[in-house]
Structures are given as C-alpha cells and as structure tokens.
Amino acid sequence: MTLAFHDAISAALYGDSCPGPAIVGGGKLPSAYGVTELAVASIGAAGQALARAIGHGDVVVDRRLASLWFDMTLQPQGWDMPSVWDSVAGNYRAADRWIRLHTNAPHHRQAALKVLECTEDRAAVADAVARWQAEELETAIVAAGGCAATQYTTDEWLARPTGMAVAAEPLIHWGQADTISPVPLPDASANRPLSGVKILDLTRVLAGPVASRFLAGFGATVLRIDPAHWDEPGVIPEVNPGKFSAGLDLQVQEDRKVFEGLLAEADVLLHGYRLGALDGLGYDPGARRYLNPGLVDVSLNAYGHTGPWSTRRGFDSLVQMSAGIAAHGQARAGADHPVPLPVQALDHATGYLMAAAVLSALAAAARGETVPAAHLSLARTAELLAGMQRLADGPEIRKPADSDYAPGTENSAWGPGRRLAAALHLDTSPLHWNLPANRCNSAPACWR
Prior knowledge:
16 strands; 3-stranded mixed beta sheet; alpha/beta; 37% helix
C-alpha cells in the first residue's frame, strides 16, 4: 500500500494522517489494478477507525485473506450457493462498442427486455443488442427503469460531465453537521466493542451490506430492512451473518409507522437508495433529523453525488464499464472483450469505507463534536483505485485454500458452511458474529 493511498483514506476520514495498519501475508489478486492494495487499505481503514473509536487495539491486516474477503467468504457444505448472476446479465457487443446489462432484479430484467423487444434468452438478447448503438441502448434502458453501462476508456470517462464531477468529489463527502449525544454503550466490552449500537440498514447488493456485516462482527445490532418478498439468493448468505432481516413496504402507512419507530431508536442509518429516492418516500435529511436528531447518517450512491448521473441506478460491474476499468483491463490483457476486476472490488472497498465513516462519526459524537452525514460512491472509489500503484508481490491468489477458513461451522439458513478466517486482527477485539446468515424477511421489524 502506498503512503499516498493510505493518506488519502486517512484524510477523508479524519482530516489528517495516521500510521497505517501492520500488514502480514503475501500474494496478490490477478488484475491490471492494485486490487489487493485496495483490499488491504480499505479493510485496514475500517480496523483503524474501530481502534480509534474504542481508544485501543493494534491493527493487523493479512494481505492474502484481505484479497479473499473481496470475494465469496462462505464455503457451503452439502449445498450449493445460487449464482450471483441471472441468465441475461453480462457484456454484449453493440453495433459500435460493448455494453453491460445488469438484470439480476426482475424489474431491471423486464425493463431491458422490453426495450430490446426480445425474450429472456441470451442469444436473443445478443442479437437484439447488436442492432443498437451502445449509448442509445444504455439511455433507453435507463429511461425504462433498467440498468446498463456502455464501455468507455478512462480518458473518455474523465472527459464526460459525470466523470469530471466524480473526479472532483472527495472520497468521503461529509455533509451537514449536527451535534448529537454520544451513543450509550453499557454492554460494550473489549470483546464486543460495538455491543448496543443499533444500525438500521437500508442497503442491498453489495457495498452497504459489507459495511453492516463488518459492524455486526464487532457486536453492533443490525436490522436490515428490505421490501416484502425481496431476495438476493446469490449474495445474502455472504453478507447476512450477525444481522436480523425484516420486510417493510415504505409506501404502506402501517409499515411507515413501524419504520419511523425503528428510525427514531436507531443510532446509525445506512442507506443506498439512489440520490433523491429516499426523499421521494418522505424521508429527506430534514425528516430523518426530525425523527431522530441523534442519528449517524451514512449513504452510498453509484455515480457520485454532484454530476448528471447522481440519480442513476448503478452497480459495481456497471461502474467498472463506465469508468474505464473494464477497457483498461481489456487493453492490458490484449483481449477482444471487456476484462473487469477479478472481484467486485468497488463494492467491497466502499463498504469498508462506509463502516469506517460510521465509526469515525460515533467517535466524534463521543468527543462532543458535531457529526456530519457521510456520502460515498462506487464511482469515487473507482477513482481511488485508478490512482494507486500495484505493489503487492508473491503468487497470484485465485481461490481459497482449506487453511484459509476459520475453524468451526456456520449453520446458515441454507445449510452448514465454513467462513473465511478474519483478514483483520485487533488484539483486543476478535471479529465474529453472534448469528449465522439468515434469509431476507426472516425476522420481525423490531429492535431486540
């Protein structure tokens, strides 16, 4: 990890520089980018934020395990993990350049198929895409409520209004600051330093759930809220250990009352709605402060918070196409197709930075300082990754070895499995979860 890279994260969190974590282990993920360096730095940043918040603890990050934690961490035993991708999602060659369709959610898939006027068949989709100019198809799918991204080079991205806006944004944008009371933690201990912190989690695939998984691993109570009947079968077993998951429809008055009661009692709100979407439901920043003046508010967006795409739906794989990452990978590999990162690194890194922002805010409240809301984006994390060097050495890390897993079995709602050993070590506070991963909508919508 370069000093400049660590300093950029430290400055974003604290406004100053602090020593980086101790790093052990070796190896690197195969990529044209410093993905392993990003994994070490972002996980280390979350660990250091925890150490600063609780006032003690030496932080050590294992380079190999950090790389592996940027991918699947649960090894099923006697059952199979569903695919992360549906049958349509992926890269397609349009008439002029490549485009990626993100169709995992049924309504996103329906939007793309409606625009393409074809059936849910990959060959039929490829034929239909080939008849479009990539940007025209992207625009049409997004207008229909779907998700797509044209492949641009880095130079093309930075010349576009959205790319310029994202590049000018801070890594963590700290918004309006409020004075809030310190979170009382009568049950906190060195072993479970976040015990008693109530986190209301409105995030889905994948960055926000990574943040709340980390915080739950040190004792925070996490209540995830999804729409009724929502599911992410290829992801939930990965990101849901230590959490309670409930379902609410925020357009139904009775559910809104339940949500407002939960929000009023929460210490932290994590949300990943598109910019303005939560406002449209009646929960803009002012309404949230009215319901809970002492709330730590941390949000995630895909394409930044200031440019013309700030309200656009997006995911890690789409941002990689837009921001030039997939094109750079293609050029470095000499391939005839986009070559993305080997893992969803923008999601994972942003998730750990969100966790660090939460911890930084909680620590500021404990010191009696004003606490601003924190805003992060996948596209800004992509800028961070693009500007760093690849320094990790050793063999390429392709998949976990048996020795990379923690001892014991996690009895998830889908069946038993083994979870990777922790990549982060604090000498006072081991990372572990009180609950195995559970399904969406499996718990009542109440604090416990």
